[in-house]
Specification:
This is RNase H type-1 domain-containing protein. The protein is mainly α and about 375 residues long. It has two domains: about 1-115, Nucleotidyltransferase, domain 5 (2-Layer Sandwich); about 150-365, no CATH class. The protein contains 15 helices and two strands. The chain has a two-stranded parallel sheet. It starts with a helix and ends in a 33-residue tail after the last helix. The structure holds zinc ion. The site of zinc ion has 7 residues, from loops. Zinc ion (ZN) binds next to loops.
């Protein structure tokens, strides 16, 4: 969009102009959907400010402007050069200044009343609220900045490119993650659970910030990856074992990796994506972390006795198999004609019985 917006500025206003872009979204948007977007006050559009600025600068032109879609990464000289420049721009440490101010004459505000729906109205109110200073201050939490910072660092180490904050927040709502797991990750990213430091500032409750098992300061990272209470160690060992048969190298989960697991994108040695492995990793890591959290709460809040190692493993197997079973059903419905690429009864935990016995293993799911 940025390229599209800047591309025509070096051409005289009264000269005809043809813009070639590989962005179908914006070419179609500007040629087919613009009236709808404007009627709806751009509520459903992304990059609204840049989009509006682009529309205004194109409208100010006095000659014909033609937009053409071209296939990206197909060796077209201008397109390849534009990609190169975009990549250079992405690696810049300081953002370029870009004037997004719109002249009063071209300013459109709000949506047409006849086009507004209840859903659009809610989105509009939400967008307005999110722009207020009070909301921005409330969002600017130290714990959130730390959580997101660590997730970005891990994602860039694994994927080779640093995701934006928007990409990270969106990844927490990845469709592969269960509804409760999404909420758990969102709360964890915000440091929203009442653990560790939260209790330090409440007189008389300081001891709640200490791990009852280890006697050290508790944090979500401690609970999920360091605590010596039965649970986390056994569960992470099982996840690693589950990966044994995979050609993709196992990435040991840690706090930042958990928060960025929605961005997992494994590739083979030829650089081809392995979506099945990425999907499996997302599910197994997030479900395992959520199970450790639930077991800690049962132990600390509900004062239940810790499970023995075998009990922990059985419960993990049941959790993962249930989740993968659901995934399989959903996948089978979607691709009803496709034959399942897994065997329904692969492994069973030693000593496990009934529901705790494994119905299938994650390693045999083929996505
Ligand atoms: Zn502990």
């Amino acid at each position: 969009m940025y390229r599209l917006s800047l591309g025509h500025e070096s051409v005289q206003k009264n000269d005809d102009l043809t813009i070639h872009s590989d962005s179908q979204t914006y070419v179609n948007g500007l040629t087919k959907h613009l009236a709808k977007w404007e009627d709806e006050g751009y509520i459903n559009s992304e990059n609204t400010e840049l989009l509006q600025a682009t529309v205004v600068s194109l409208r100010k032109r006095e000659a014909v402007t033609t937009l053409h879609w071209v296939k990206g990464h197909s060796g077209i000289e201008g397109n390849e050069k534009a990609d190169e420049l975009a990549n250079e721009g992405r690696l810049k440490e300081d953002c370029d200044e870009f004037n997004l101010n719109i002249e009063q004459n071209f300013q459109l505000s709000g949506a047409k009343l006849c086009k507004i729906t209840q859903s659009l109205a809610y989105k509009f109110i939400r967008q307005k609220k999110m722009k207020t200073l009070t909301y921005r201050i409330a969002l600017d939490r130290r714990a959130t900045r730390m959580g997101i910072g660590r997730a970005k660092a891990c994602a860039s180490e694994i994927c080779g490119k640093t995701p934006t904050e928007g990409m990270l927040w969106k990844s927490l709502r990845h469709k592969d993650l269960g509804r409760k797991v999404r909420y758990f990750l969102w709360m964890t990213a915000h440091g929203g659970y009442k653990v560790g430091e939260y209790w330090n500032s409440i007189p008389g409750y300081e001891t709640r910030g200490i791990c009852q098992h280890c006697g050290t300061s508790e944090s979500m990272e401690h609970i999920l990856f360091e605590c010596e209470a039965p649970g986390q160690k056994e569960i992470w060992e099982q996840t690693e074992k589950l990966w044994d048969n995979k050609p993709t190298p196992w990435i040991k989960p840690q706090f930042g990796i958990l928060l960025s697991c929605g961005l997992t994108d494994f590739k083979d040695t030829d650089g081809n994506r392995i979506p099945g492995d990425s999907r499996l990793y997302r599910i197994v890591v997030s479900e395992s972390a959520y199970l450790i959290w639930k077991m800690r709460n049962e132990r600390v809040i509900n004062e239940r006795d810790p499970l023995p190692s075998r009990g922990v493993i059985n419960r993990w197997l049941w959790t993962i198999n249930s989740r993968l079973g659901t995934d399989l059903v959903l996948t089978s419905r979607k691709f009803a004609s496709a034959k399942p690429g897994w065997s329904p009864e692969i492994s069973r935990a030693p000593g496990a019985s009934g529901a705790a016995g494994a119905r299938c293993t994650a390693a045999n799911i083929i996505m």
